[in-house]
Each structure stands twice: as structure tokens, then as C-alpha cells.
């Protein structure tokens, strides 16, 4: 253990500080496709009975009308976060008429690109902007890639904990700058170690053959409709032969918040010739928001993002520039098709210990060589993480995945024990032990368990529908209480009323709104 990590843990262990760990916040966003009884993409509109996808705070759509997204509030107890997520699922299933929530991350058999429905958000300017942005994504990357689903895990440490650490380290920067710097340091360590999450929780070693759309690939055929890699953990997080040339040179620096926001602002403001050739509009119809490397900052695909809750009308980067980093959003987690929610409390507990370790561990600046090694390690694990004897790169030296994983888990253990000591339990230690078992025995990983099912003769679709039906029965067999159902019904109705009010009050034309929105990111922070 390094001196810095030791000092930070000693400070955390003090009774006045240990209790602050109870104020860490957790939020989950879970995406999932709607499918029909045959496992085909549901082409029905987003159910109005679920409310407005534009204004509902907990039930919306991601890329497609068919791609639901469930969002929990951020709360201190991850068990409460998961309980809230479960209630959202139960409500959704009370409204899905003959449809199912697809259980894995990789999509079902998809219709042709033209048929996949882009999400619609009504006639307000902001609703139209969300739609045009998605049209641009289809143009740039294709609709197929946008139908992949995942779990986003939002995590924050309390401001007071950062302030105690800043005082102990005699740091003279502003509280905002210190906190932002520490979150960026967390992200650097996440880049170093996130391959471990893909090994432990990757659950997409196979996919439907139609997903590749006839493009060249290195996948193997498991059956007539299923492609896979024998040692893959998360094909969802691999390149799968798709690469964004526009984003190829866009690697935002995580050495400080300023360079990160500057690089994204530059990408949103820099034309990209192939997109310029297409144009933003044709015959008066919007095709994409602009012809730049990124239409908006969220188009940049990353495994983790620094985040800040935005004010009304404020863009994510504006919030970061004005008020600093408030939490991180982990974006690389697969949906576990064996779990009704796609995630469980054991995974959440481990993520908390892992992220706390990333926050407290030394985090030197990332130089180019290490940056490349981080990317290479991640891609190696998603494609062949269970390969016996797999070697990764650590400090420019080869190291076996098994050895490095075991050493990392040993380093994370004291953080898990701190979390347990605060709560008077051993839940985090047990979560860590469950991961140690996967390192010792790769057959215990979700990716291996998925392949085991498929190798018994189930096609990708048959397995996914088997799990989808099991989950549907789980949620429908325990419906919400009358009080809870009424509350969700009221939220849905209010969201529809809010959207109608927004549309009724709209002023000006969309072109002017879009121009002002795009100019806003280039304005200096207040």
C-alpha cells in the first residue's frame, strides 16, 4: 500500500470521517429493448401509459422508441437504489401489452436499418433537438449500434469528505477545484483498472449474427444465428469492426478538468469533412445538428464520465466548467441477463469499493504510453478475458490477468472493510470474495455462464427470450401495491401534462433554437 493511500485511509477511518461514507450517493440508469413475443424488436411507439419520454424523470427512451431507459434518483443506500429500479420495472410491466424487456445487452434480431424507429419527443424545440441529434447518430454510426443496451452506475462521495481530505493534505486550491481534480484522478485510475470490471461483470460473449449486417469480423459461429468469441467477456464494449473515424483522434485528456472540457468543446466546434459533405440540412429537413466531429458533447463515447447535475437549459459541459465535478458515471457495465434488474446488490457493493479505491489510490498523470496500454488492456479483456494465461501490460511489463486481478482485489479489500466498518456489516467483504472466486475460476463469470447456456444448444435469441420471460414472470408475480401503482400513474400523467405545457408555451422557430443551443457550448463559463 502506498504512503498516500495509507494516509487517506487512516483519515477515513477516524470516527468523524468514517460516517461520511454513509453519504456516498448511488444512482442507476438501465437501458433495455422492448421486444414482442417472438423476440423481434417492438415497433410500437413508446407507450403513452408510461408517460412522456421527454419529461418523465424515471422512464424515458435512449436512442430508439424501442429502447427504454429506467432512471433511479441518487440515494445513499444502494439497496434503496435497486429497490427503486425494481419498482420502475414492475410499473413498466403493468403497461407492456404482450411485450417483454430484452434480457441481454446485445440486441435482438433487428429489422433493416430504415425500420428501426428513432425515439420521438414531441413538438417542443428541445424535443425536436433530441430527435435531430438521434437522426445524426443514425447517419454517423448506423442505427444498429445504437440498439445496444447497458447499465450506467452513478457514484459520488460527499463534499464534506473531500473537504476533510483537502485540509489534511494542505491543498490551497478552491474546494471546487480540489474536488474536481480528485474526481478526475479517480477517472484516471478507472482507466487503469476498468479491465477488471469487464472480466468480473462482462456478460456479452455472443450476439445475433444479423447485428454484424454482413460486415467483416473476427467472430466465430456458434450456430446458424449466433456469433461469439470463446474467451470474450463483453463484445458490447469491443470495436466489433465498427470504428468512428471522426472520434479516432479524440482522446480527451483526463489529467485535469480544463483539458477535458476544452477537448470536447473543440470537437463540438470543429467541422469534420465527411459530415460537411453530407450537410446538416437537405431540402429544408434537418439531417444532423451540425457537421462537426461531435454534434453535442454526449456523443463522445467513453467508459466513464465526470458529471454535474445541470440546471434547466444548461449543457453538461457548461455545468462542469461553471461548478466542477459532482459525481462520476460508469458506462461500461453489461446487463447481466441472469438478473431481473441486470445488476444486483453484490455487484453494486463491489463497484462502491472499487470506485472508492480508485478515488483514494495514487493517480499519476496518464502519459501517452500508459494511455495506450490502458486501452489495449481493456480491449484484450473484452475480447479474450477468460483466455488461460492472458497477459496484460503493467508499467510496460507483461503481467498475467489472474495475478494482477488478485493483487488489485487485495488492494481493494481494506476499502471494502472500511465501508463495512461504517455500516456494521460484512457485505462489501462478501462482495469482494465473490469476485475473488471468479478470478480463481473463470467459469463463474457471467460471460462464461452465458456461453455455457448457449453451448447446451440454445440460440442467442432462445436464451435471451428464456431469460426475458423469466424476468417478466418475476415482476408480474409481485405487482406494485395499490399506493405505489397510483404514484407511478400520477407521475406518468404529470409528465404528459408537462410536455403538453412545454409545447403550448414554445416560442420562435426551431432553427433559431438549434443555433443558440450550439453556440452556447462555445461561450466562456461564468
UniProtKB/TrEMBL annotation:
Keywords: ATP-binding, Glutathione biosynthesis, Ligase, Nucleotide-binding. The keyword Nucleotide-binding applies. This is Glutamate--cysteine ligase. GO terms for cellular component: cytosol. It comes from Pseudomonas guineae. It holds the Pfam family Glu_cys_ligase. Residues 11-380 form the Glutamate--cysteine ligase domain. It is an enzyme of class 6 (ligase). GO terms for biological process: glutathione biosynthetic process. Belongs to the glutamate--cysteine ligase type 1 family. Type 1 subfamily. GO terms for molecular function: ATP binding; glutamate-cysteine ligase activity; metal ion binding. Its EC number is 6.3.2.2. The keyword Cell inner membrane does not apply. InterPro entries: Gln_synth/guanido_kin_cat_dom (IPR014746), Glu_cys_ligase (IPR007370), Glut_cys_ligase (IPR006334). It comes from the Bacteria. It catalyses: L-cysteine + L-glutamate + ATP = gamma-L-glutamyl-L-cysteine + ADP + phosphate + H(+). NCBIfam families: glu_cys_ligase (TIGR01434).
